[in-house]
From TrEMBL, chain A:
GO terms for cellular component: cytoplasmic side of plasma membrane; cytosol. This is Septum site-determining protein MinD. Residues 5-213 form the CobQ/CobB/MinD/ParA nucleotide binding domain. InterPro entries: CobQ/CobB/MinD/ParA_Nub-bd_dom, P-loop_NTPase, ParA/MinD_ATPase. Gene3D superfamilies: P-loop containing nucleotide triphosphate hydrolases. It comes from Halolamina pelagica. One of its GO terms (biological process) is negative regulation of cell division. One of its GO terms (molecular function) is ATP binding. It comes from the Archaea.
TrEMBL record, chain B:
This is DUF8054 domain-containing protein. Pfam families: DUF8054 (PF26239). InterPro entries: DUF8054. Residues 67-98, 123-162, 179-199 are annotated as: Disordered. Residues 70-87, 144-160, 179-189 have a biased composition (Basic and acidic residues). Residues 11-194 form the DUF8054 domain.
Length: 257, 199
């Protein structure tokens, strides 16, 4: 195990899943990477990876009476181990979020880098759990005030559980000149560097429509290149495997109300 | 208070056409009815010394902004010897948007005015804002921002520094956001039974 990173943002639609998969594929050049759609309330990794019809997903693993094995929900695609999450509302309601801990512990034992595509809203235990479980976070931002204030808020939530910021990604950037100033200013408030600024990109939208991660669909696009730079700047820290697994298993969380 | 309440910004009160709406629906309404007038924006949140502000419109397109709150380069309110005036002065243009933006809802009233009542303000570059900036920064609505930019006249504001830069310069404001988030996170951790995980 190298590190578990939660990819977080203050709100939905900023490109969290796009970014998680792109970072994952870039990191997969040197590491075994597992990507989990831990955004159980707004799961959409399956649509980015052609796994919308996957038989077994994280949703199944989170059901209290589940007899699915973790490995049943792992799909090898695009050089990654992917754990998609189903989008059934009924299953979401029935899910026991605390089971995520055991699932993540098992996955962590078997991979170098674990990326948790995390919930945007911070309104429930299941939404913050990825921030609790991860070693560090990558915060995805759009260059607007609401997105930055939400990003600062997520960072603070994560920090209160001892999870520091590994870096920041600015996504959907349109104004190249201004973003350098903004990124420099933002660095003073975030615990990690600006990993990259990702341009607004037709390729990113087309990749999503095609059901493929950006780095598979358009590896030569400017956005893909920016994500590879981001992955290079992310200096992963080696964690002790057993300690990580212990942490995931530790502390029994009471059932949600 | 006279009109929207800005001493240096002479705007008559005008005709109230909508009250108690959120910023997003106010900007949307102003756009669709091609409002010439202004929105009076009152932050509901207690965060970071919320003060009221104004965004003016010409035919539904935002033109100018003013906020009674400064953007943090002054002393804090309360250390002042002039209690009735917000410290750090007021803020104008994109700085005013930065002062008004942030998490938490606002209450907005929309007023209609004859175009000539706004001529002076709309001619003053210090108040000017990019047409799409209020939708983007106050309402978090990029689609409305795009439509607004499409309708804006070609010579509309095209300033250098953005509202976002002004926001990021306001260290005090950002510290307040962080403190509030930290307190909220800790309180919720207790509700969710995660308090033993706190550092
Ligand atoms: N850099 C970009 N340029 C253009 N569109 C993007 C970019 N990044 C993401 N998108 C698009 O934005 C939408 C939301 O992205 P997604 O990654 O699913 O967001 P989230 O997981 O944060 O909800 C998708 O349609 C995606 O293709
Ligand atoms: Mg997503």
């Amino acid at each position: 195990m190298v590190e578990a990173l939660a990819v977080a943002s203050g709100k939905g639609g900023v490109g969290k899943t796009t970014s998680t998969l792109a970072l994952g594929m870039a990191l997969a050049a040197d590491h075994d990477v597992t990507v989990v759609d831990a955004d159980t309330g707004m799961a959409n990794l399956c649509f980015h990876t052609g796994l919308a019809d996957a038989d077994t997903t994280l949703q199944d693993l989170l059901l209290a009476d589940s007899d699915a094995a973790v490995e049943d929900a792992v799909y090898d695609r695009f050089g990654l181990s992917l754990v998609p999450c189903g989008t059934s509302l009924a299953a979401f309601r029935e899910a026991d979020p605390t089971r995520l801990r055991a699932v993540v512990a098992e996955l962590a034992a078997d991979t170098d880098v674990l990326l948790l595509d995390s919930a945007a809203a911070l309104g429930s235990q299941s939404a913050v759990l990825p921030l609790v479980l991860a070693d560090r976070t990558v915060v995805v931002l759009q260059p607007t005030i609401p997105s930055l204030s939400d990003g600062l808020k997520v960072q603070e939530y994560a920090r209160s559980y001892g999870t520091e910021t590994a870096g920041v990604l600015f996504n959907r950037v349109q104004d190249d000149e201004a973003i350098d100033r903004v990124a420099e200013q933002a660095e003073q408030y975030f615990g990690g560097p600006t990993l990259a600024t990702i341009p607004e990109s037709d390729a990113a939208r087309a990749a999503r429509r095609a059901g493929e991660p950006l780095l598979a669909y358009a590896p030569d696009s400017a956005a893909a290149a920016a994500y590879r730079r981001a992955a290079d700047r992310l200096d992963l820290q080696d964690r002790d495997e057993d300690a990580v697994a212990d942490r995931f298993r530790s502390a029994v969380i009471p059932e949600p109300p | 208070m006279n009109g929207p309440g800005a001493t240096d910004l002479e705007i008559p009160r005008g005709r109230l056409i909508r009250s108690r709406v959120g910023v997003a629906s106010a900007l949307d309404a102003a756009f669709s009815r091609e409002l010439t007038g202004y929105a009076r924006i009152e932050p509901d949140s207690l965060l970071a010394d919320g003060e009221p502000g104004v965004v003016t419109f010409a035919e539904g397109v935002p033109r100018a902004a003013y906020c009674e709150r400064g953007t943090g380069d002054g002393e804090r309110r309360g250390d002042s010897h002039e209690p009735e005036r917000p410290i750090g002065g007021d803020s104008r243009g994109v700085d005013a948007l930065a002062a008004l933006a942030g998490p938490g809802p606002c209450s907005v009233e929309l007023y209609e005015l004859p175009a000539d009542a706004l001529a002076e303000v709309h001619d003053a570059p210090e108040f000017s804002v990019p047409p799409g900036a209020p939708a983007e920064e106050l309402a978090d609505d990029p689609a409305l921002a795009e439509r607004t930019r499409d309708r804006a006249p070609a010579d509309a504001h095209d300033g250098e520094a953005s509202a976002l830069e002004s926001f990021l310069e306001d260290e005090e404001r950002i510290a307040a956001i962080q403190e509030e988030a930290r307190a909220e996170a800790e309180q919720r951790a207790a509700e969710w039974g995660l308090d033993d995980q706190l550092e």
